Amino acid sequence: MDIFPFYRNNDTEVYLFILPPYGVNTYVVMKNNTIIVVDPGKGNDLLFNSIDLGKYHKKGILITHTHYDHIVGLKEYSDFEIMIPEKDENGLIDPSANLSYMFSEDFKLKIPYKELYEGYYDFGEFKFLASYYPGHTPGSMIYDFGDFIFTGDFIFLDSIGRTDLPYGDEETMFHSLEKFRDYLKTKKDSVLIMPGHMNICTVKDLKDNNVFLKYGGKK
Ligand SMILES: [Zn+2]
User: Fold this and answer.
1) How confident is the model at residue 217 (pLDDT cuts 50, 70, 90)?
2) What percent of the chain has pLDDT over 70?
């Protein structure tokens, strides 16, 4: 099957796969010898059949937060360097934190991984900024690659991540929205927002459509 990138610039390409169990947006970013998968859902066969992983030397997986639907596919990957927000690592071992109990599963994962803290990271051909935007989970991170930002379940085109689930916190989410509103002032309107569910949009689309963002997180 042919697949088409959502983003292409020079040697960088970003592909989107929408995977079960909750239609998570699993992204694949590649440039020359580097490949990064963001939030692998379940059933990555199409991805494996479409992309020749063997030709990449530097292989990583970035997790925006440790809810079940965003980490369930980790087991399907081997020889990838897994990177997880330090403040969200509880979700790897706690089914009430990763919400797998809602799927009638008792999901726990014992894997080697690298803890991410706020700051810039170099990974192969890429440099990205990791920042905390908690509220949906205590350690939700977004990853800014310059022309595109992976926002996980922090923010979507016209909504925000739920705060009523275990470990979610509405007040914390409001602070994150204020922080993000300020941050977006430094970003071009054309920068792509790549959320954990639903549609990819631009920074301008977000500013025009997201009332949570517009009113600084206050309802
Ligand atoms: Zn989530």
Assistant:
1) low
2) 97
CA of residue 65 to ligand 1 center, whole Å: 7
Distance 219 CA to ligand 1 centre (A): 21
Gyration radius (Cα) of the chain, Å: 16
| Centre of ligand 1 from the C-alpha of residue 210, in Å | 18
For residue 2, being part of any structural domain is answered with: no
CA of 55 to the centre of ligand 1 (A): 31
Tens of pLDDT, residue by residue over 168-198, are 999 999 999 999 999 999 999 999 999 999 9
How would you list the strands of the sheet with 192-195, edge to edge? Answer: 119-123, 126-132, 141-144, 148-152, 192-195, 201-202
CATH number at residue 127: 3.60.15.10
**Ligand 1 centroid – CA 211 distance (Å):** 20
Total domain count for the chain?
1
Q: Is 170 inside any structural domain?
A: yes
Beta carbons within 10 angstroms of residue 139's beta carbon: 24
Q: How remote is the CA of residue 54 from the centroid of ligand 1, in Å?
A: 30
How many Å lie between the centroid of ligand 1 and the Cα of residue 97? 10
pTM for this structure?
A: 0.96
Q: How far is the CA of 190 from the centre of ligand 1 (A)?
A: 25
Task: Please give the DSSP secondary-structure letter assigned to residue 39.
Answer: S
Region of 99 please: left (phi>0), alpha (psi -120 to 50) or beta.
left
